[in-house]
Specification:
Length: about 400
């Protein structure tokens, strides 16, 4: 590990957050002598972020824990355009009301993980619509456009990959990197921001902001990116057969959130404990050294700690109790996901998909054929099986050993 003098970079380094930095020595020296306001941008395309964004939220938490000021930038303005990074098609347009509602919903998670207020290291949340919505097009071209060359913009992966795939990129999206660069410059001027952080896919956009600040104002700005987060089997973090793992309770029940972490691959346990919990490093070292079935104890600690941070202590305790009741006692804990089949009943494949155990009827049929589906403790082998439940009764549905739910009328 590199020897850093600042608490900030030491903490980020030992917990595995650092992938790239624009000027490590300069940032280290700055963070060692003064409070550094730093920000990360989040677009408001849904009422909740998913756990692919959790490493970035934890990065802001680490910034605050080491004595610096987190700025949560909500992209009320840039959400209207859409970041082309990693996308094959344009983003759907959202109304102002939807974007504002999404931001209010997303804020509830940040309030659990950051301390907001007026103090020097208290977090603040800002919305780039407040300044991007005020600047005129001609003014933007004159002030900012002259500092960007089309040659350079075409060289960035976010643009190049779309063009190589012959996927259309609108002029609206092409402007995204200019607006993001201007965000950094504005936050530096108005709020003293000196650091922008983000995932490794944001490196080009961050560099643009660093260079724009230097060209327009002579301000020295810094950038840090985190490694691309994938699971040990090469999968994308936060994606399951049933869909995204959302941070907000309204989008995903606490038990399902807890269970995602409980099902972590053995090889990922130590890394995830460092990134997503506040447990001391010596304790994490002991947990990740567990072998055989004992590693499951470490996974339960991981699930409890992450759920506690994101959903609260009561949610973590309830989810663990439900899991213990389901797995050890063969019962059906109250936090399990449920689905209603109504008076007419529903085919087993439909039920599996509706409850979120499978991503499609085709996958459901495959799991049934494999003998992985049980209803009321009995294996279901007929993909056309009609699930009926008597009024006032419940049936336990299981897919494999890890997915359990309740079927009601």
């Amino acid at each position: 590990m590199t020897q850093y003098t600042s608490d900030l970079l030491r903490l980020l380094d030992e917990r595995g957050y650092i992938h790239q930095m624009t000027d490590a020595a300069g940032l280290d020296a700055l963070a060692a002598k003064q409070i550094v306001p730093g920000y990360i941008g989040f677009d408001a395309t849904a009422p909740s972020l998913h756990i692919g964004s959790l490493v970035q939220i934890m990065l802001l938490r680490r910034l605050q824990q080491s004595g610096h000021k987190p700025i949560v930038l909500m992209g009320g303005g840039t959400t209207r355009i859409g970041d082309p990074t990693g996308r094959d098609e344009s983003r759907k347009m959202l109304t102002d009301e939807t974007i504002d509602s999404n931001i209010a919903s997303i804020r509830t998670v940040f309030e659990k993980l950051l301390k907001f207020g007026d103090g020097p290291t208290d977090a603040i949340m800002v919305n780039n619509q407040d300044w991007l919505g005020q600047i005129g097009y001609i003014e933007m071209l004159q002030k900012v456009g002259t500092h960007f060359t089309v040659n350079r913009m075409l060289s960035f992966d976010s643009v190049k990959l779309r063009l190589e795939r012959e996927q259309p990129m609108t002029f609206l999206e092409f402007n995204y990197m200019i607006l993001q660069g201007y965000d950094f410059r504005h936050l530096a001027q108005e709020m003293g921001a000196r650091l922008q952080m983000g995932g490794s896919d944001q490196w080009g956009n961050i560099i643009n902001g660093v260079e724009l600040g230097r060209r327009m104002d002579g301000t020295e700005l810094f950038g840090v990116t985190t490694p691309l987060l994938t699971t040990a089997d090469g999968g994308k973090m936060g994606k399951t057969a049933a869909g995204a793992v959302w941070l907000n309770e309204a989008q995903l029940p606490a038990y399902d959130f807890w269970q995602y972490w409980r099902n972590t691959d053995d090889r990922d346990v130590g890394r995830f404990l460092r990134l997503f919990t506040d447990l001391p490093l010596n304790e994490i070292t002991k947990l990740e050294a567990l072998e055989g079935s004992a590693i499951n104890d470490a996974k339960i600690v991981l699930a409890n700690e992450v759920t506690k941070l994101v959903r609260g202590e009561d949610a973590a305790r309830s989810a663990e109790a439900t899991a213990a009741q389901t797995f050890a006692g063969g019962g059906a804990g109250e936090d399990l996901p449920s689905v209603s089949v109504g008076e007419e009943g529903k085919r087993i494949g439909v039920v599996l998909t509706e409850i979120g155990f499978t991503g499609s009827k085709g996958e459901a049929k495959r799991k049934i054929t494999e003998g992985a589906v049980k209803l009321g403790g009995e294996t279901i082998s007929d993909a056309g099986f009609l699930v009926n439940v008597a009024d006032g009764e419940e049936l336990k549905l299981s897919l494999g050993k890890k997915k359990h739910g309740i079927i009601t009328r």
